[in-house]
Amino acid sequence: MGRGGKKKAQDLGDWHLWTEVTRSVSPLKPEKMQSLRKITPPDATDKLKSKPDNLKTSAAQNAPGKREWAPLVPHTPQQQLNAQPHINSVIRAKVADKRIDAKTQRKLRRGRTPIEATLDLHGMRQHEAHGALSHFIASAFARGRRNLLVITGKGVRRTDFAQFEQKGVLRYRVPQWLEEPHLRGMIAGIEGAGQSHGGEGALYIRLKRNSK
């Protein structure tokens, strides 16, 4: 038998073998086909389709209008001073039991009660102003003076950057120094001065009577 005859016989044998195999195989029922579809993983095109939605969600979360910014907290000493309350509020919070009575306040503001001694702290450094204030109070008390004026200055200056106003150090520190034990025992009352005596840049200090 030639090569062509052998090939035909081989093909015929393969066909008979395939026929026998297909006879033993039964087709899948529709229910089984549906279950196979459910467990089939999504193809790459489905994954790519889902990505734009994720990107949109992320972009919406990071949009400038949706951000919540933490409040600014002052860090430098100057920024901390800028965040302090008004000088009169500081006094009232710390020496609520040492206020000048309303009648005396009116007389001081209108000039009916004279200022007996004045201390000007302009241009002094903190340690210099602290020492000068202590000496001034002690000296006035020893001499029997009662109505004093301490000028701290409004402590407002212009900066080169955006022309911001900044409060001075002495404006905040003087009320704290007046709370020290060696001074507060001599003080009968403290109050922010009237406009004619410097307003926010000055303090009225009324001393106790010196019985000695």
Automatic annotation (TrEMBL):
Residues 119-208 form the Smr domain. InterPro entries: Smr_dom, Smr_dom_sf. Residues 24-68 are annotated as: Disordered. PROSITE patterns: SMR. SMART domains: SMR. Pfam families: Smr. Residues 44-54 have a biased composition (Basic and acidic residues). PANTHER family: DNA ENDONUCLEASE SMRA-RELATED. This is Smr domain-containing protein. It comes from Maritalea myrionectae. The lineage of its organism: Bacteria, Pseudomonadati, Pseudomonadota, Alphaproteobacteria, Hyphomicrobiales.
